[in-house]
């Protein structure tokens, strides 16, 4: 039993293998947060003490008990308008213009397993998953909130979401409906968040929290390159290997907001969910609204410890079961090899050369459909341009399969070009304000995915392509931020629903396609990693990590991504040198080592490779097969601290039984007569003796973890070294 309610003390305890999350029902039906951290086996109610604080008001019935204030008590789901002046989780506009909500306990239920969330991604159950539903109610407006807590004991993970129901008789408008709020009564914290831009996503930035609100998020209609929906709250002394860390990851791909407020009392509140800017949702009597789910985890073992918990959770509970282990195809993608300039013959040449190297799948990127010789036209017209290809898609895919490769195709379903048959037939299918010229980006518009007719059109046209050729993989792109988020299918009063309905439409389309093609592998993409989130990962087990394929830049991008997401989700390819985004020249070996820590593939013209390069690539591919399980399923450790080691980047994988490890090091700045390079390894079994492959050296795990692994830095620009360790005992 991982969920218990102690009726005597009115305390809910959610217990995972190592952690405890506790809440208390206080007088008047307020649900208070008591504690989240290492197991204590104790009722933590003693942590709450009520002090009379000026200007922090009291619920009416507690007016003589001035210490009881919603403004200072730690609340599980704080509401706006009733005296808690910190960031609220919920704001509701009632028909009479009031914006006050007062949710009090009604009942609770504990059950085995969990229910899915209608239309939204969610964490899939383990055998021992349990659910706590606490129902709160505002008697005046008839709003009920089911606070859902799903406990994954072996994962040390708790997920939360909220179902809001209008059980009254008036119209209610949700103006803010966060997925979770978590109050930390005391303590001083740093926040680690992941910012970025196109071609440089998920850069970790750490800062100390002070009084006031720190917030980050996205109002771009997508989770965005700029701010990932994953944040970490950690002890200011936490390092990669030690210290308290709390992670909050929203399983959502649209607008999101993460807020952290340090209050007057020194408490810290984290609120995360759909971004309230531009959001509103009309809840008629009898209707319900579900928030996206958020995954919470705590680790006392530093940032690496927290990352490992999220990696395992994503691999085993977010990805579809058939994608949990290794075995994704090594692919070659046509984009950087040909851009829009190809026909079937050229693609077949790529396929033949790639097959000789050991590649397993060819992906035909943008440009095969409608009128699409550059990025100004054709989006929405998902029919094959046979004139350009010189054959049908079936003929092309048959030839590729005959060569011995699988075949994949690029789509950008949610977009529409003004210059397309689709736009000419249905201009109202694009998101666009009435009477206003739309904001353009990449000279394209965004389809109104909130409309069922749009989703139906996309389903039918994509099925038509997928049914008429053998296609094992789809790259699902999304190449602009949304602006003019106005739907011609919704009345004025419901325009605030468009952005969320858009995401529901996209998820619906993905679900329908996967239902029809259960073995289809969909790789997410959004100008690289602009929609790299656990929501997309529920449908797409891998996401193209960045449009920047430069190996040195990728060190930062993939490292930043690894704080929340496992390497088995990161699309990473070896591309040409000089690199197309930076002009940098890096050794092919280094490009291989970096791309290997992802879903491995190539993004170059294989016909232009020298014999030496081809040999190196054959070796890369055989190494990848050799290490695939270790990389996809092993424990991942960042070996360098955020601020340290400007001259190298190092990381490693350790197998579950700790008998095998792979250490990768890229030297980003080779120095003449430089300091002696070494890295301290992690995660090994202290008493095991490891052999470093290719050398006669053996060392205990303890020695390698405490004394470090010295190595000789090769000369030249950006060299890489790798060590494969196998235990001898
Ligand atoms: C995006 C993707 C690229 C490529 C292009 C095609 O930028 O990230 O990999 O598919 O679109 O237009």
Number of strands: 38
Distance between the termini: 37 Å
What helical percentage do the residues reach?
A: 10-25%
Bound molecules: alpha-D-galactopyranose
Query: Would you tell me the overall average pLDDT?
Result: 97
Q: Describe the main β-sheet briefly.
A: 10 strands, antiparallel
Write the layout of secondary structure elements.
Elements: E1 3-6, E2 11-15, E3 19-26, E4 30-38, E5 90-94, E6 104-112, E7 130-138, E8 143-152, E9 157-166, E10 172-184, E11 190-197, E12 200-208, E13 212-218, E14 230-234, E15 245-250, E16 256-262, E17 268-274, E18 281-283, E19 288-290, E20 294-299, H1 302-318, E21 331-333, H2 335-338, H3 344-357, E22 361-364, H4 386-389, H5 393-403, E23 406-411, E24 415-416, H6 421-425, E25 445-446, H7 452-467, E26 473-476, H8 498-516, E27 521-524, H9 534-539, E28 542-544, H10 551-562, E29 570-575, H11 588-596, E30 599-603, H12 611-633, E31 635-638, E32 648-654, E33 660-667, E34 678-679, E35 689-692, E36 698-700, H13 701-706, E37 709-710, E38 720-727
Parallel strand pairs: 21-22, 21-30, 22-23, 23-26, 26-27, 27-28, 28-29, 29-30
Antiparallel strand pairs: 1-2, 2-3, 3-4, 5-10, 6-7, 7-8, 8-9, 9-19, 9-20, 10-17, 10-18, 11-12, 11-14, 13-16, 14-15, 15-20, 16-17, 24-25, 31-32, 32-33, 33-38, 34-37, 35-36, 35-38
This protein binds alpha-D-galactopyranose (GLA).
